[in-house]
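User: Sequence in, structure out. Go.
Assistant: Echoing your sequence, followed by the structure tokens.
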Amino acid sequence: MTDAFSNGRPPVTDLFTPNPDDTYAPALVKTGASSEAHSMSTAAYAFDTVKLGDHLQLDLGGRWDRIKVDYTTVATSGAATNFGRTDDAFSSRAGVVYKPVTRGTFYAAYSTSFNPSYDGSFGLTLAATGVNAAALPPERSRNLEAGAKWDLRNNLFATAALFRTEKTNAKTTDVSGATVLAGDQQVSGVEFGVSGNLTSRWGIFSGLSLMNGSVQESGVAAEVGRRLSYVPKSSFNLWTTYRLPLRLTLGGGAQFTDGYFFNNSNALTTANAAAIQRLTKYWLFNAMGNYEVNGHLSLQVNATNLANVRYVDRGYTGHFIPGAGRAVLLGPVFSF
């Protein structure tokens, strides 16, 4: 569909003080263009755990995937272009778990994965029109993680982990502007968590992540060494509940994100770049209350973004999606 503009052009309005009387009725007509895609995936996998005594075990697994896609696009002239691709890929996982005492566990794991390139942004659309990315194979990643879990006491445990994820052939562009798989992107970090019951009435769930995401290789020289998009350097969450007498439970928590960029060049092309960048760093506060009517029915109220913070939920080069404002929801909770 397209606008023939036979009803005139849309009015120009102020984004921050729009006039609700500036109405516009587009004259939509069919262009004849269309697109259709079909995909089919088949997989076979095997996983097993091998125990070596009372304190050591191995986790091993492998998966084979076959993904086939057919895509047809029809231009306004009626000319049809067909595109099809089939990918076979194998991914694996290996891990070791060591339990020196009943309360503690140490682990290490290595895994590989893949991501087919024919998504809506870089595969089907570009390849079907014969531009670039016409025969891109899947992107491949590998992940290494090591950590520990320790039972501080019954129903309360702490976790810590080191991790590194690397996309070894990430999408990038070459000197001609064509999309190629010649990039290298890495995310390394550490995370901590405490979850469980502090007392018989007091529960807690918390986590802290510190990450460093960077572009190691890219066809765009300005991106090399830059921070990866959508990877904050730190994030934190805390949620706690307390069960009071008279079947009443109260809870509250906070969530923090330390800001991030929307693209690997670490810049935006809009006039509001600094403001939008600032809105990706925020605190959110939430609360809840639950009253147990009987064993099967509770009444619960949830309040989110109590401070009504303005923040960016998702951003792009030319626009962003704002986060949800303050909201209060009351309703029943049924259990069986």
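User: And one key feature?
Assistant: The CA atoms of residues 173 and 179 lie 4 Å apart.
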